[in-house]
Amino acid sequence: xTSTAVIDVERLNLKYxxxxxxxxxxxxxxxxxxxxxxxxxxxxxxxxxxxxxxxRAATSGSVRVLGRSPMDRAAVxxxxxxxxxxxxxxxxxxxxxSVRLIGALTRRQDRVERVLxxxxxxxxxxxxxxxxxxxEKRRLDFATAVWGTPELVFLDEPTTGLDIQSRxxxxxxxxxxxxxxxxxxxxxxxxxxxxxxxxxIGLMHRGAFHQEGTVAELTQTLPAVIEFGxxxxxxxxxxxxxxSAEGKVVIETHQLQKDLFVxxxxxxxxxxxxxxxxxxxxxxxxxxxxxxx
Length: 293
Ligand SMILES: Nc1ncnc2c1ncn2[C@@H]1O[C@H](COP(=O)(O)OP(=O)(O)OP(=O)(O)O)[C@@H](O)[C@H]1O
Fold this sequence. Notes:
This protein is of the alpha/beta class.
């Protein structure tokens, strides 16, 4: 393991009876990195993360977290903040009591009022968990990742059910965790969130990596896209194009800058207005769509 690896997975295999859910998976997450573990349904993300978090034993292979076995819970667990999809706080506890409980369980030091403020639940501090809205419950789940600024933070679908203000606030808080040195592991089906923030992405399919790398490395395997709308008839385009389902003109290219220049000159020469012009690397959505099921 390199000295900066916070998570080191070597040839991990997980089997459920005869079913081979994770196959010889190897990857590392470096200190301070934002790593997104993404994948198709049933790819093995949850199984892999549960092993790293110490909830599940590997069938074979080695997993090291912060230099130790994840089964060494007394040493490793206090350094990890895990925001599950459903934390299952007791419905009869108040928000303040729940946050205090997080503190007692993690044994990290922090202040209840600070964490309530970060997850924007100060005004709900005296409210029972059973009376929180879905988004408020999700923000309370997020408190488990914030309390005591853990060295390693796992975020499992963190923004599900959050409105745009709460999502922005959550990502601001994650940025703050990173500034304070936390390593972040995200899993989500909202690919745009990973595309905007992840340093590296592990893209799983059927128990193994389909691809692993930076967003640029993943997206550069597919052509870049130029897209625009036009009103009425247009002169013949100097580039190969197709129409999208919404009637927009779509040009796929491996030489974005050159073809964009050709297009803009053509539009200028022919007095064509390019409406809602967009040009750039393809999205992670397309990388996913290209996976052969
Ligand atoms: N306890 C279990 N017993 C048998 N098979 C299981 C068990 N848990 C998971 N699996 C299977 O292992 C595979 C991987 O499941 P896992 O939950 O790790 O996938 P995932 O990538 O998290 O999927 P999703 O995106 O759909 O949540 C799936 O085919 C699933 O049906």
